[in-house]
Amino acid sequence: MQGQNQQQAYDRGITIFSPDGRLYQVEYAREAVKRGTASIGVRTNDGVVLAVDKRIRSPLMERDSVEKIHKADDHIGIASAGHVADARQLIDFARRRTQVNELRYGEPIAVETLTKEVTDYIQQYTQVGGARPFGVALIIAGIADGEPKLYETDPSGTPYEWKALAVGSDRGEIREYLEDNYDESADLDGGIELALDALASVNDGGLTPEGIGMATIDAETETFHQLTEDEKTDYLESFDLLASEDSDDDETEE
């Protein structure tokens, strides 16, 4: 009984390391990310692609209200997986930082700089008593000096840079697909195809334009663009990934 009580003490205290050097609440936050629907990022020579699974709880829910891709600045987009409310807090923080940088220095913020400012903010919540970590992972994509950049934020406050990555549910299977099929020489359309193929690999029956979200950040124009329903339909048809008939998924979107 004493051992169990000791375990619970480490379990509840975000600021307390367990004897084997673990922060249990941070690990639980990572589990919360895994419960969210998948988000994917792919970096290409011509820009960066973000793709997300927008499954909803009920056919009565308005799909437009499910937001998993956000514009942080003209040259930066963010996709999330995990708790939606936590994601919105971090995205609002990121948007404020981009505005402060523009006003203070008169230039757009670097993607790496923004990522590290966000992860520094996340990390504070692993050291403060009476708070909890953010139960969300972000994919931050953008262009810096003409070079596409792609980063992940972890609930521990650690930034990672990737060529292609997935967060959320089915992360392992999607990452394996990306590792097997990633082509460093691909153009932006090739990145879109890879991202959609990766999503389709864990969704039986194909994809629907309403059930996914997509955005690109073009390296030449350095602009964020969220794909319309018609554009998504065209890509799904051209890659032969369009579902034969629309079907609603009753799994919870996060």
Describe the protein in words.
The protein is an alpha+beta fold. The chain has one domain (33-54, 67-238): Glutamine Phosphoribosylpyrophosphate, subunit 1, domain 1, CATH 3.60.20. It contains seven helices and ten strands. It has helices at 2-12, 24-34, 84-105, 111-124, 171-181, 188-200, 229-238, and strands at residues 39-44, 47-53, 69-73, 76-82, 136-144, 147-153, 159-161, 164-167, 212-218, 223-226. It has a five-stranded antiparallel β-sheet. A five-stranded antiparallel β-sheet has the order 3-4-5-6-7. Strand 5 (136-144) and strand 6 form a beta hairpin. The relative contact order is 0.20. Mean pLDDT is 90; it is low at 246-254.
Map the helices and strands.
Elements: H1 2-12, H2 24-34, E1 39-44, E2 47-53, E3 69-73, E4 76-82, H3 84-105, H4 111-124, E5 136-144, E6 147-153, E7 159-161, E8 164-167, H5 171-181, H6 188-200, E9 212-218, E10 223-226, H7 229-238
Antiparallel strand pairs: 1-2, 1-8, 2-9, 3-4, 4-5, 5-6, 6-7, 9-10
Helix pairs in contact: 3-4, 5-6
